[in-house]
């Protein structure tokens, strides 16, 4: 008769399979990616705060996106690194498990909502440039960001609460490096088919709901750009939204790959790889996507760097 874990106070995370050497290699790789992610996003936040040239709606949203990336990676990666550094299985309390899952899903929902808002911002900038400052006023931008954060944290209360109301009587061992919902459902002895279907619909609502304004915005953006008579004009117009478009493709692609599937309890290896893409690789890439080809940001960064070097010399 299986042990009843419905009142368990902890779960056991198996982490990554493989040898000690592989774990050491993964630890170094993920630790370096985490450090670069933190530094890259912190530089973006700092630059948006201190340089007046970056005091515009696009960079205001980008600053909040960077905050979300730092928080999302910090919720997942330190626990992952701990599991790679220490041999054997690691234990996580029920409260910590529910908190981690809730923060991870809530922050991810905030990020998708903000990406949709950024798409609308790019639409206004390209298609209605003369009214841009009126439509995207500071009051509007603050309102959009507040709604994004509130929606993300309120929307995920019920899904996480419903998950932890299940009876985990099969096992308390999760074949993952964090408290993955699919693994939690897999260990439940309740009939989870209805719960999985509802969670699938909610994931579709979040992703498609934020993707729809993005698709409409870029449809109008592309239509407007194609009407510009000169190649240089078209290139300049497209450069204003190229970084966000790249971010949308990567962000939504990985989320669709991981979350929008009717069967939440898929193979552990599939979920592990997809989770690494969402929580490690994508946050690592985003600072580079938004800064390397952004001339205004690079110019502002060089000026701030020169001022800092001057102060050090003095």
UniProtKB/TrEMBL annotation:
It is a multi-pass membrane protein. Keywords: Cell membrane, G-protein coupled receptor, Membrane, Olfaction, Receptor, Sensory transduction, Transducer, Transmembrane, Transmembrane helix. CDD domains: 7tmA_OR6C-like (cd15912). Residues 40-290 form the G-protein coupled receptors family 1 profile domain. GO terms for molecular function: G protein-coupled receptor activity; olfactory receptor activity. Pfam families: 7tm_4. PROSITE patterns: G_PROTEIN_RECEP_F1_1, G_PROTEIN_RECEP_F1_2. It is found in: Cell membrane. The chain crosses the membrane at residues 25-47, 59-81, 101-120, 141-161, 197-221, 242-260, 272-292. Gene3D superfamilies: Rhodopsin 7-helix transmembrane proteins. GO terms for cellular component: plasma membrane. The keyword Cell cycle does not apply. SUPFAM superfamilies: Family A G protein-coupled receptor-like. It comes from the Eukaryota. PANTHER family: OLFACTORY RECEPTOR (PTHR26454), OLFACTORY RECEPTOR 6C76 (PTHR26454:SF18). Putative odorant or sperm cell receptor. Belongs to the G-protein coupled receptor 1 family. This is Olfactory receptor. It comes from Erinaceus europaeus (Western European hedgehog). The lineage of its organism: Eukaryota, Metazoa, Chordata, Craniata, Vertebrata.
């Amino acid at each position: 008769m299986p042990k009843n874990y419905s009142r368990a106070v902890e779960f056991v995370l198996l982490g990554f399979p493989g040898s000690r050497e592989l774990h050491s290699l993964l630890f170094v790789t993920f630790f370096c990616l985490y450090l670069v992610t933190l530094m890259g996003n912190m530089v973006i936040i700092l630059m948006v705060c201190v340089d007046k040239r970056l005091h515009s709606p696009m960079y205001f949203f980008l600053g909040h996106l960077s905050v979300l990336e730092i928080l999302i990676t910090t919720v997942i990666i330190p626990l992952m690194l701990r599991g790679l550094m220490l041999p054997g299985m690691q234990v996580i309390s029920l409260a910590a498990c529910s908190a981690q899952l809730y923060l991870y899903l809530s922050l991810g929902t905030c990020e998708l909502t903000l990406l949709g808002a950024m798409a609308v911002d790019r639409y206004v900038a390209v298609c209605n440039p003369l009214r841009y400052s009126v439509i995207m006023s500071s009051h509007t931008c603050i309102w959009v960001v507040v709604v994004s954060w509130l929606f993300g944290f309120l929307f995920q209360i019920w899904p996480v609460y419903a998950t932890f109301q299940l009876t985990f009587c099969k096992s308390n061992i999760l074949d993952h490096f964090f408290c993955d919902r699919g693994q939690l459902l897999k260990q439940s002895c309740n009939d989870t088919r209805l719960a999985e279907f509802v969670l699938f619909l909610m994931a579709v609502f979040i992703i498609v709901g934020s993707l729809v304004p993005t698709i409409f915005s870029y449809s109008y953006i592309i239509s407007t750009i194609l009407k510009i008579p000169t190649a240089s004009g078209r290139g300049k117009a497209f450069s204003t939204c190229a970084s966000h478009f790249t971010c949308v493709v990567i962000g939504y692609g990985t989320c669709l790959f991981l979350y929008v599937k009717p069967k939440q309890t898929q193979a552990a290896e599939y979920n592990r790889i997809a989770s690494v893409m969402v929580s490690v690789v994508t946050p690592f890439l985003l600072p580079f996507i938004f800064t390397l080809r952004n001339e205004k940001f690079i110019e502002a960064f060089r000026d701030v760097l020169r001022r800092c070097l001057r102060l050090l010399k003095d």
